[in-house]
Amino acid sequence: MFLKKRNKQSLFLKKRNKQSLFLKKRNKQSLFLKKRNKQSLFLKKRNNMSRSLKKGPNIDQRILKKVAALKKGDKVIIKVWKRAAVITPEMVGFTFGVHNGKEHIPVYVSEEMVGHKLGEFSPTTKFLRHGGKMQKDQEAAAEKANTQKQTANSSSSGKIK
């Protein structure tokens, strides 16, 4: 009878240990996820994985051939659809027409742009304005002030001295 009781107790303790270990792991995971969520609020990055060093930078050979065919002083815009192409030192001083999905936006390449991608300098979306009541009120007030200035200028210029 004593042995049976002891076996039952040991089984109970084993189960309890397993449950507590499981709960500890779960708590650690939830803490980790909470930290990650807090970080993601402050660090909004689209692509946090860089390209492999083994592969090297994403350089389009066709673009380099077009650049080599032109002289540095030429005002020709080189049309480019590959937004992921990395800007190399050979491209400095040329103007590229980078496609944004609708049209080619001219981008003049300077020395500070080397190492960045062509797509970083041609936005794909057009910012119009922020919405909301406050913004509309501010715009209406600014428009009213402009019309008052124009009427004041036109009335003062009409007077003969």
Structure notes:
- The protein is mostly helical and 161 residues long.
- Helix content is 47%, strand content 9%.
- Among the domains are: 1-44; 61-121, Ribosomal protein S19/S15 (30s Ribosomal Protein S19, Chain A), CATH 3.30.860.10.
- It has helices spanning 2-42, 61-69, 133-157; strands at 77-80, 95-99, 104-108.
- A three-stranded mixed sheet has the order 1-2-3, with helices on one face.
- The longest helix has 41 residues, at 2-42.
- The model is unreliable at 38-45 (pLDDT under 50).
Q: How many strands, which pairing sense, and closed or not: the largest β-sheet?
A: 3 strands, mixed
Fraction of residues in H or I helices: 40-55%
CATH architecture of one domain: 2-Layer Sandwich
Q: Uncertain spans, ≥5 residues at pLDDT below 50?
A: 38-45
**Distance separating the two termini:** 123 Å
Number of helices: 3
CATH topology of one domain: 30s Ribosomal Protein S19, Chain A
Question: In total, how many beta strands?
Answer: 3
CATH class wording of one domain: Alpha Beta
User: What is the assigned CATH homologous superfamily of one domain?
Assistant: Ribosomal protein S19/S15
Order of helices and strands: HHEEEH
Beta percentage is: 5-15%
Tell the overall outline.
flat
Please outline the helices and strands.
Layout: H1 2-42, H2 61-69, E1 77-80, E2 95-99, E3 104-108, H3 133-157
Short summary:
The chain is mainly α and 161 residues long. The chain has helices spanning 2-42, 61-69, 133-157; strands at residues 77-80, 95-99, 104-108.
